[in-house]
Predict the 3D structure of the following.
Amino acid sequence: MLKMSRPFILICVAFFTSMEDVSATSGITEHIQFNKCLPVSYMHVKFGASLENCEEECVRRPACKSLNYRRKTRLCELLPINSGQSVPLISSAKCVHLDIRVGDQLLIQTNSPCSTNDCLEGETCNLPNSPNCLITECPDLTDGIDHGHLLGNVNTIGSARIAVCETGYKMFGSPRMECSVNGSWTHTSVCGIPCGVPVTVLNGHVTSADIFTPNALFSSNDSNVIFSQKIYLNGSWIEFSCENEFFLRGTNITQCLNGNWTKVPKCIVPGIGQVCVDSSECTVPDSECRGGTCRCLSQRSYSYGSKSCVYDCQTFADTFQYEIGKKLNFKDDESHYMYNYTACKQRCLEITSFTCQSFEVSSSLCLISSNNANDGLFRDADEFIYYQRDCLT
């Protein structure tokens, strides 16, 4: 007996959204684009929704500006920007993009009681009850974080985003940011490159500063606050000014760049000590360009009182003019062996038995004198450097 095989019937069911379906929703056809999607992180996602349901979900949220509707999977993505903003639409099969708002203005006609609600950004108009507002989302993080990016793409309460820093940048604090019940992120993760503690400027003061730390950016001109931070991040900067009698050499700003502070300025004697090429650049009377810096002419001291170079002092400062390869001849009041420049200068300034007007240093000898080059013989001496004390008056 011949067996007959049973016939079978294949039934296919397709779910799709047609132009007629869209047209049934009044007033949206002019704002809809088929086979296009806006590729941004969504603020909320809803599964198994119709396009009309998706539209209503967006209308209920003032923060929602547009939506992507995935027709094949009936997936609704609510977006914080619309297609008129900076991100261009991309081709995507079975995707529908619909602009809902520009700013606070609805672009579509709807009978929803939430269309005129007073909810704020991050709040949702609550239905089916009489409309009231519930906090349901945190602010959008579409722009991510500086020098890093965020994993995850949902901003609803209870959701979390994970921060990942770019190569070369360090994470400060926890990389996990959570959307709390009050509609705010628990914190903002920070990626940065830290610099060490900045240096102060001798004879100068801070005029302004912007300091970036893992917790905040603050502006200040209070040195105690500026120099008391534990971590300084890329972008921090400090501006300096010199005290009245000093001249600023170099840029007046130091910046934290790639883990290091740029060169700090120096506050020097006005016109004396500044870099020069020729003597025309040296504005202090009786000064010259010598060895690449402006100095007083030979055998003279700088006077802070008259702001000029003079032969003799009434009162003495703690700074010195110098000449290489020179020394006094037999005019020494003290001799010290194995004193370097720092020790010899310190001894000159601390002597009380006489007033030190000059000193000389060689590789092994320090000679201190109550005279200067104008009081006695001044001769060549290749192994010495001669230092003549400056004047207050």
Remarks:
- Confidence is low (pLDDT under 50) at residues 1-26.
- The helical segments are 19-24, 51-59, 223-226, 341-350.
- The two ends are 135 Å apart (CA to CA).
- The chain has four domains: 26-135, 148-192, 194-268, 279-391.
